[in-house]
Amino acid sequence: MGWKKTVGITMLLGCTTLIPALNANAATTYKRSKQTTVASKPYYAKSATGNTYTLKGSAKKTTLKANHALKNYMSTTWTRSKTLKLTRGGKATTYYYVKNAKTGATGWVKSSSVNAGKNFQGTTAKKSSGSYQRAKAGKVYAISGNNSYVKFGKGTALSTTATYKRSKVRTIYKRGKAYQYDYVTSGKTKGWVLHSYLKAATVKQTTTKKAFGATTQVASSNGVTYYQTSGDVLSAYNGNNFKTVNVASNYVMGKPSTYGYSSTYNASNSFQTTAGTIGLLRRTNDAYSNYSFKTSVYLPIDYKDFATKAVFGDPQSATFSKDDKYLYVLYNVPDDATRPISEQTGWVIRYDWAGILKYSKNGSMDNIRRATNHYYNGNMSAQDKTILSYIKVGPQFKSGHVQSLALNPKTNQLWFIKAYKDSYTATAQRLSASTLKPNASVNFTLSSKVHMGSTLTFDNAGNAYFWTQTASTSWAPKNSVKFYKGSLGSGNVHFKLVMQGLLRAPGSTLQSVSYNPKNGRLYLVSDESIFSVPASKLGSLSASDVSATNFSGTREFESLVFKHNSNAGYLLTNKGPEIMQMVMK
Q: Does 145 share its domain with 61?
């Protein structure tokens, strides 16, 4: 073979290898289905192989022409808007019509070439403070672009000795997974770093003597400011000085073997139309004990935005706003009952009280449950929409077993106890009345031998109260009541044991505590049994100061709540969830 032929063949082969791979499928024909418009959804390329394509020809004879190689878009997101199927040789393949978030490039891509999820996209940064040190090797990056496409610049290695101040946080998605990035500064170094590369900086001890129970701010993240106390916040006492006031044993109610339902709940399939009652069984002979309960509102059960039906079936505590316009009810996920208390999930529903009462008239008291049920099933009426406008459902968060939601009328702040039993370190959290999620969290320890109680209430002066039921002690009778009084807030937590309690608790299961601002009494709630005492006489009570009321039935008494501007009290109970008004006789 002559050298000219050799060169010619070599050039021909070389030209063949230079034909772009994007045209590889140009001659293959397919049958094309109709395009279907679908909800927008983000995707990312599985690997560097594969392309996007344009379609040409008729539905019966469609050809593909590759227009974008996926290897050039590995750090971007594609957004799907349409789907279709191409069939060849009896085999159908699904294709997505996608648009690239970075360049705007479009085309059809095999569904098997992409995975669902965002890739190199982010969220808008939020303010968040804190001090951090390096936990593992990593880099601080300058990030450019926007939320649709983020680009990492040259990184600077984290220092092993520096302290980094965080001012913002944002989420960045990579291959479908969400990662928290913190914006930090240290000297001339500034930029974004993966949160898992950091750890909280050691808090430097100060020599300044703080007030007993004073808190220190330790961090701020995702809208929550975190505080902690140092040392015990329970004043020292001598247990030998503790005394009790007698309460007759016949007023102590045992826990029902099984909690009962409202009498009309099952027969009505939960859509109860008329008010139920819980009748008086026995009482002490005084002016404060003669009352029963009658339904004011049957609370909703179904709700569309939660994963399963009947998610509103486990309310734990409630409180009114200072002006009595809103009722806040704190719920638990029933399936979380076996988890550690601090890990249990909850949420708050804010009810416009006057609004829902308009649709809770006797004879048509099923309106509220039907409205949320219709919303769940997607067939709402105009009345349903009006009712739902009076109900605001907050987001889920780690709430603990929330038997303690209470308003401090002095500060107009909502507080609850998140953790109290898992360890001697307790956590109280402040709830935002607008976002319905915590915005402050305080860790504290009463003492190394005393757990925080599960209940909470405040009087008009801002004093905080809770009570406990004695399990076993050498200086207090078993099942006796201990009262604790003090302060609870983001700046200070301090409690004292009142050195006089009650010989017996109202029942075997401690449920809640509440304060009636109109008569100045504290109410201790157990199932089917409620005791009350004047708050102003704690420490010097006589037997005649103790009012006791027992009730018929087997309902679970979750919470007792009083309005702030009228002498109206309400019982929150379960199976099904309802608010029952205290009816004085």
A: no
pLDDT at 473: 77
The ranges of the chain with pLDDT < 70 are 1-26, 203-209, 305-311
Tell me if 98 sits within 8 A of 80, measured CB to CB: yes
* Domain finish residue from 198, 214, 243: 198
Give the containing element (helix H, strand E) for 367: helix 367-377
Beta bridge partners of residue 571, listed in sequence order = 560, 580
Q: Are residues 166 and 92 part of one domain?
A: no
Q: Please tell me whether residues 410 and 536 are part of one structural domain.
A: yes
Instruction: Indicate if 42 and 191 belong to the same structural domain.
Output: no
Give the residue from 584, 583, 582, 570 showing the smallest Cα distance to 315: 570
Residue 243 inside a domain? The answer is yes
The range of the structural domain enclosing residue 165 comes to: 119-198
Do residues 453 and 528 share a domain? yes
Q: What is the DSSP letter of 279?
A: -
CB 509, CB 469: distance < 8 Å: no
Name the residue with tokens 């360049």.
103
Looking at residue 314, its pLDDT comes to 86
Q: Which residues contact 18 (CB under 8 A, 6 or more apart)?
A: none
Query: Quick check: is 476 in a domain?
Result: yes
Do 180 and 276 lie in one domain? The reply is: no
Q: Give whole-number Cα distances, 397 to 215, 429, 583, in Å.
A: 24, 12, 35
In three-state secondary structure terms, 385 is: helix
Whether 204 is in a domain gets the answer: no
The confidence score (pLDDT) of residue 4 equals 41
Strand partners, 217: 227
Tokens of 448: 């190394």
Separation of alpha carbons 171 and 148, rounded Å: 12
Task: Give the CATH number for residue 450.
Answer: 2.120.10
CA dist 203 and 206 (Å) reads: 9
pLDDT of the residue at 304:
78
Report the alpha-carbon distance of residue 220 to residue 132 in Å, rounded.
12
**Tokens representing 548?**
């006791």
Q: Cα–Cα distances in Å, from 12 out to 1, 16, 55?
A: 16, 6, 30
Domains in the chain: how many in total? 3
- CATH number reported for the structural domain that contains residue 32 in this entry: 2.30.30
What whole-number distance in Å separates Cα of residue 167 and Cα of residue 170? Answer: 11
Q: Tell me what pLDDT residue 5 has.
A: 41
Give Cβ neighbours of residue 19 (< 8 Å, ≥ 6 apart): none
Q: Are residues 170 and 251 in the same domain?
A: no
Rounded to an integer, what is the distance from CA 545 to the centroid of its chain?
A: 40
Beta strands in 101-163 (DSSP E): 106-110, 114-116, 121-122, 126-134, 139-146, 149-157
344 Cβ neighbours under 8 A, 6+ residues apart: 332, 333, 336, 337, 398, 399, 400, 401
238 inside domain: yes
250 in the same domain as 144: no
Query: How far apart (Å, rounded) are the C-alpha atoms in residues 89 and 29?
Result: 10
Cis peptide before 363, with omega less than 30 degrees from 0? no
Share of the chain above pLDDT 90, in %: 84
Measure the CA–CA gap between 533 and 407, rounded to whole angstroms: 20
Please answer whether residues 28 and 78 qualify as being in contact, where contact means their C-beta atoms are separated by less than 8 angstroms. no
Among 114, 147, 162, the domain-final residue is: 114
